[in-house]
From TrEMBL:
HAMAP family: HldE (MF_01603). One of its GO terms (molecular function) is heptose-1-phosphate adenylyltransferase activity. Keywords: ATP-binding, Carbohydrate metabolism, Kinase, Multifunctional enzyme, Nucleotide-binding, Nucleotidyltransferase, Transferase. It is an enzyme of class 2 (transferase). Residues 359-453 form the Cytidyltransferase-like domain. Residues 16-315 form the Carbohydrate kinase PfkB domain. It comes from the Bacteria. In the N-terminal section; belongs to the carbohydrate kinase PfkB family. This is Bifunctional protein HldE. PROSITE patterns: PFKB_KINASES_1. Homodimer.
Amino acid sequence: MLDFEIFLSRIPGQTVICIGDLMLDQFVYGEVSRVSPEAPVPVIAVRREETLIGGAGNVACNLATLGARCVFVSVVGDDAAGETLRAAFDRHAGRVEPKLVVDCERPTIRKLRFVSEHYSSHLLRADWERVSPVPAAVEDALIAHVEAALPAADAVVLSDYAKGVLTPRVVRAVIERARALGKPVVVDPKGRDFSVYRGATLITPNRKELGEASHRPLAGLDDIAAAAEELRRTAECDALLVTLSEEGMLLKQALRQPVHVPANPVRVRDVSGAGDTVVAVLALLIATGADFEAAMRAANAAASVVVGKRGTATASALELRSQLLPAAALASEEKIVFDDAVLAERVAAWRKEGLRIGFTNGCFDILHPGHVRVLSRARAACDRLVVGLNSDASVKRLKGEGRPIQDVVARADVLAALEAVDLVAVFEEDTPIELIRRLRPNVLVKGSDYRVDQVVGHEIVEADGGEVVLVDIVPGHSTTGILKKSGKAPDRAGGPALPEAAKPR
């Protein structure tokens, strides 16, 4: 039996080294309604812009979002794009440790995409890159970073975009040192010569890459399985997994029949970065002790999550769990969202039905009668209630060391199980102001220990014609009080001193 609960519970304790080509992914979203008078090209009316960590960096982001730790090794140029990427990794502080070697002779890889939001299609992509092997000095620095991190690592990922970081020398050095220490190595390959990855644990080509590397037509699953076994032997790896887009995945291990799993049914919005998610989940599951088939099924589930999002996306542990576990156990978890696009889509559907959207927020570290009253009264004031939930990092900043008592998965699970709650939206900031700006609720609810002018976001809701509702609190009930009674109240020393109006409830 595939016990995914056990494997998923082990993820927070895993450390994965990822090495590969780093990119700055930029997206410009807008609408196209006319042709330029200057040339026969479409004009995009820009609505918003997005800057993301791409390439192998997206593998690191996936690992962090899933709750693991990643030591990320790559190369940047001495330029503004490189500085932007360094700053972007700060959002994953504590989960991603970037080891970025500067190569002054090349620019940081940058990809700028123009996307029509109405048609969900890419109009144009502009690339800044120099495709060539990194020099020997940079190779030395990359290998040194990996060697230093290997003893404490549980797995290694080689994310090859064929831009020059993973030279044959770097690949061989990483695989040989990792295998000598008994660390599994998962490779997302590029090129037609898989022998360079000789000795890796698992290699994950897509259908096109497999066809080019095997020099044979791939008409059906039998052809794919035969080509996979041929390349597995060539690369002397334990297993080879072929990603087949809408057809799912096929796994070929030594001395075993191939295993094929179909893709999960999903509305595909964007396939950008899906391969990064797959390789991240494979490495993590193998690190937790899962076999190749269990790891494949988890990766297949994670891929179905990210292709349902726009742009270079990641999958959270909650989203992965909701895809893997039986539907009967997931009714509450379907309410939990980390992704802004998914939140916007659900709320937009409610608005289309003419429903009144309510919002409240808090840390909800230990759920007590005071919380329940606020949530039930909030739901009574609207048709659909969205609860903003502070992330673990946010709670720690607000409440100090020792908090939260329960991690975000546990807190979100408990909230989502309540009948009064229709959606749980996790946010990283100290206050939900940005979430409120995106959500634009009709009703904003807080406890009566606030005044209306102290409630974060009151001006946004009132400007839209909405209202702020204050609910009478239950005296004598608070998380801090519960912890004091139990004798386990954490020392709040070092936590930020917040004005009363800024304290989340």
